[in-house]
Amino acid sequence: MLKRIESLRAEASAAIAAAPDAVALEELRVRHLGRKSELTRLLRGIAELEPAERGPVGAAANAARAALEGELAARRERLEAAEIEGSLAAEAIDVTLPGTPPVAVGHLNLLTRTRREIEDVFVGLGYRVMEGPEVEHDFYNFTALNHPPGHPARQAQDSFYIDPETLPEAVVNERGLPPGPTDVLLRTHTSPMQVRGMEAQRPPLFIVVPGAAYRRDTIDATHLPMFHQVEGLAVAEGISLADLAGTLDHAAKALFGPERRTRLKPDYFPFTEPSVQVDVSCFACDGSGRLAGGERDPLCKGTGWIEILGAGMVDPNVFGFVEDGYDPETTQGFAFGMGIERIAMLKHGIPDLRLFVESDVRFLEQFA
Predict the structure, then answer these.
(1) What is the distance of C-alpha 231 from the center of its chain?
(2) Within this chain, do residues 52 and 123 fall inside the same structural domain, yes or no?
(3) For residue 241, which of 266, 261, 205, 224 has the smallest C-alpha distance?
(4) What is the mean pLDDT of the chain?
(5) What is the pLDDT of residues 19-28, one digit of tens each?
(6) Which residues neighbour 53 within 8 Å (Cβ) at sequence distance 6 or greater?
(7) How much is the CA Rg of the chain, to the nearest whole Å?
(8) Pair 277, 320: CB distance under 8 Å
(9) Are residues 250 and 309 both part of a single domain?
(10) Pairwise CA distance, residues 323 & 303, whole Å
(11) Domain presence at residue 95
């Protein structure tokens, strides 16, 4: 029995000394000192031995167990020390090497920057920035903006409807106006916030509404099915077309430079009367229509003027859809709308609208 104990001790000692890592060392502890190990079974069976054998066998087994536990602890300390040394060596920093260059921070997209520039101009004039839903009721998108069912202007903007059910026939309401269909669509402009803004606040009201709009357009250099607009609305006592002209002239100078000039030309929009097209003097040819070499300016097509937005005095019919505080007989105001992509393209000489959505880093990094 004593020889077997010595043999078990020698076998375990050799294995412990050769253990490569902490996992292997734990497996050896369980194998040689665990509850099911042979040495543990010998200690449990001492009571069954002859009385003369119990003392020598018990002493030898306990001595073997204590010796192995000491060897395990010593080996564990050496392995942990070696692991720490290895980690320190692997994680050592050579202070003579050049530092890691900083990662470049991101920047705002050009459209976001342009939108904020436009907002800043009008906030400086006392306007308030509002936002509205992109999924809009037909009533606000068309009918309340003087586009009753059947109006030809609807066809140019008819877009992405959410509810494909058959639309009910229009009926004339108590105010003599046909209500819009009860359908829902992706808004085709940010102008629906004209009526929503007036419903939320009595005059005076000065707001600009930036946001995305959607139309069923082909994709080419000047058209996308999704684009961005800024709608403006001013309603207050005594507002006139002259106030509109002065406001937009100030905005054009703030966006394109103080030397710019503006002009208003008659136009047509269903929700303004009278309506105007606003042009700004060309900044490529300084309004002459000719470049420095004498050739025709392709940007303004030789006219010296570039169209930037549409505007006009709010049609009284639009006020008629807002009952509280907006009497169409006495209320006056003006509205305007501009495309954010168009303003950005003109300011930075961008030739193709598709560049805004292609995520080409070479293009985007030019405006960092």
Answers:
(1) 21
(2) no
(3) 266
(4) 85
(5) 888 888 888 8
(6) 1
(7) 41
(8) no
(9) yes
(10) 44
(11) no
175's tokens: 């105010």
Cα separations in angstroms, 139 against 146, 162, 338: 10, 14, 22
Q: How many CB atoms lie within 10 A of CB 57?
A: 20
How many domains does the chain divide into?
2
Q: How far apart are CA 81 and CA 213, in angstroms?
A: 66
Q: Residue 242 pLDDT more than 90?
A: yes
Task: Report the alpha-carbon distance of residue 352 to residue 5 in Å, rounded.
Answer: 89
Residue 177 in this model has a pLDDT that exceeds 50: no
* Any domain includes 98: no
Query: What type of residue sits at position 250?
Result: H
Do 232 and 155 sit in the same domain of this protein? yes
Instruction: Give residue 173's identity as a one-letter amino acid code.
Output: N
Spatial separation of the C-alpha atoms in residues 207 and 204, rounded to whole Å: 10
Cα dihedral 290/291/292/295 (nearest 10): -80
Bridge partners (DSSP) of residue 337 are 231, 310
C-beta of residue 308 within 8 angstroms of C-beta of residue 278 = yes
Residue 207 backbone dihedrals phi, psi, to 5 degrees? -135, 150
Q: Are 63 and 43 in contact (CB under 8 A)?
A: no
**Residue in this structure with the two tokens 């000047």, named with its chain if needed:** 222
